[in-house]
Design brief:
Blueprint: E1 2-8, H1 12-22, H2 34-37, H3 46-59, E2 70-79, H4 80-86, E3 93-96, H5 109-113, H6 141-167, H7 172-175, E4 184-192, H8 193-203, H9 210-226, H10 228-238
Antiparallel strand pairs: 1-2, 2-4, 3-4
Helix pairs in contact: 1-3, 3-10, 8-9, 9-10
């Protein structure tokens, strides 16, 4: 999996502050300097003033201003299973690599068995892995070796069958039906800061599936660089709380 920030609103936290101050300002923020807009906010520097205001907004549930800045992420190599989970967030915009127009006719099924093209879950090779709704706990080495064998043979056979169907003239949009749900896909995803926090509440939680949790943690790392005040507060005071942020 590879997650990268493609594009993002410049100076996002200044934009959050301008939006928030507009609600309580007699003046017009469109004609003010940022210093004028933040004049009555507590703090000795503009950074401290932004920390004060953003912290107040997040602590008091005033999330509207966080809908103004937006970021777009490129995601490579997640499973179709993970894609089905993340695309349930209806306020996020997606473009998903199409298996109608992109075929995998040049992929060696043996390479697929070794980990190419199909995401391999940790439970296929880790005897100590325990997932949600798992009926048993850790297993012995013999059992996990059998898991690995069955998984490799299944995905290799699926890709070989898919390629044979292509050779027999079946269109990619129909031949893809035999591919496993773990088949890799690339995604472009855009959302505002408020929605990013909501997605993190749901998908970086301890009870989320391992793959989407990894995806969301990667997005959060990039968000921390883009909106450092907001996500420092989020990570310190808002994560893992019972009352999650609504979309």
């Amino acid at each position: 999996m590879d997650v990268r920030l493609l594009e993002a609103t410049p100076n996002p936290e200044k934009l959050v502050c301008k939006g928030a101050r507009n609600d309580y300002s007699a003046g017009f923020v469109g004609s003010q300097s940022f210093e004028e807009t933040m004049e009555t906010v507590d703090g000795d520097s503009q950074r401290e003033k932004m920390e004060t205001l953003i912290g107040h907004l997040l602590s008091h549930g005033h999330f509207g201003p966080f809908e103004h800045p937006q970021a777009t992420f490129a995601i490579e190599g997640v499973s179709r299973s993970c894609m089905a989970q993340i695309t349930r967030h209806r306020h996020v915009s997606f473009d998903v690599q199409s298996m109608r127009y992109v075929s995998f006719d040049d992929v060696d099924p043996e390479d697929v068995a070794a980990g190419e093209m199909v995401v391999t879950p940790p439970s296929a090779s880790d005897p100590n892995w325990v997932g949600r709704n798992q009926k048993t706990g850790a297993v012995d080495e013999e059992t996990v070796e059998k898991r690995k064998e069955v998984f490799r043979e299944s995905v290799s056979r699926s890709v070989a069958d898919y390629q044979e169907l292509l050779d027999l003239g079946m269109p990619p949009e129909d031949a893809r039906f035999v591919l496993p749900i773990g088949t890799e896909v690339n995604i472009v995803m855009s959302m505002n800061v408020r929605m990013l926090m909501h997605v993190a509440d749901m998908r970086a939680a301890a009870d989320a599936q391992w793959e989407i949790r990894e995806l969301t943690e990667s997005v959060l790392e990039l968000a921390e660089e883009w909106c450092p005040i907001t996500f420092a507060h989020y990570n310190e005071k808002m994560r893992n709380r019972k009352n999650r942020l609504a979309p």
